[in-house]
Amino acid sequence: MGNNLIQTIKDHAVPLYEADDLNILLKEINDQKYVLLGESSHGTAEFYNIRSEISKKLITEKGFTFLAVEGDWPSCRQVNRYIKGWDDKNKSARDVLASFNRWPTWMWANEEMADFIEWLKTYNEGQPEDKKVGFYGIDVYSLWESLDEILNYFRKTNSPHTEAAQKAFACFEPFNRKAEKYAASASFYSEGCHDEVIELLTKIQLHKTNESDSEENSLNIEVNALITANAESYYRTMIIDDNASWNIRDRHMAEVLNKINEFYHNKAKGIVWEHNTHVGDARATDMENEGLVNVGQLLREREGEENIFIVGFGTNRGTVIAADNWGAKPEKIVMPQAEAGSWENILYQAGPGNKLLIFNRDNKHLFHNTVRHRAIGVVYHPAHEHYGNYVASRISERYNAFIYVHDTHALHPLETEQVYI
Questions:
Q1: What is the Cα–Cα distance from 263 to 298, expressed in whole angstroms?
Q2: Extended beta strands in 130-209, E state
Q3: Of 10, 64, 241, 403, which is most buried with the most CB atoms under 10 A?
Q4: Do β-strands 401-408 and 134-137 pair in parallel, antiparallel, or remain unpaired?
């Protein structure tokens, strides 16, 4: 298979060295509702820069209306406020990115993102209010921050739901904002806050309004309520069932995308930035055998495959920002060359240059065989790559296109105060 696949890549790959080389990819994207842009690590500068260039083109040439990322909703809301001109406190993107204080902060608080956020702000300044591009976080982790947002807004507006929010807040207070403490209590001792968050979510959903308020407060409250419910479920489950907690998280992210779309009156076109393991269809990997789903699969099932375009990313070697343990200080780590026989190694053998592959009706069957495809998370041990950093994948079923960068570099984190949760 190896030699045949090498030649097939040579026959179908397009060289990729500058932004205009991405135009061939843009020609494949027309009426799709979502474009999902992956990454094979959370700490590679080239992935962020290329995704930025693709996103700029999607916004300016294809009319895409929002960007959703694998980040916390409350922190990303600060970015959204900044790029839409509602923020009179922060003077720069770097100021705004200081709100990303949950480990791993470098995923969004980095120089590469700061430059892109400034571009988004400048772009929006030339747009009418209803055409400004949004920026949203769709992850599930921000339980306490989301409760803060709800309670503060309800108190400010004298909402009739303030009591329900206070009740939920009081239930979580003894855990001192420590997810692991809540997880242990809820999992092993049935001392959780499930009833309180479901009551809060139900009240908010039953009485939600459809008014288009000037700063998206209704969307903010609805999504934060959804986060409190799903985060409670996620933390209650994560100690006893890894697979179930994974599915709760990815189903949540797909659900938030739907809430954003509804807020845009179902006329939204979204760009999603997440790790390959979230955007690349799980049904084309060994994740399926473990009962795992992901955002790419869920969106294809819900919206129809013709409405979703997924781009995977990978590299052969380089440096990456990661840590050797959860909550540890991030560092620049040397990433070894991809293992022999892996997808990334075969791409390297097909020629050392950066390249783009687009999988279509004519060539998709040529990339159907299962290969091992590298995935690096926020915790990374290069010496142990063989044991946990490769996902068996049918690449042309997992993605609609793939971008290979031969030699990559660590992104540039900003200095922020970190909360280790």
A1: 20
A2: 134-137
A3: 403
A4: unpaired
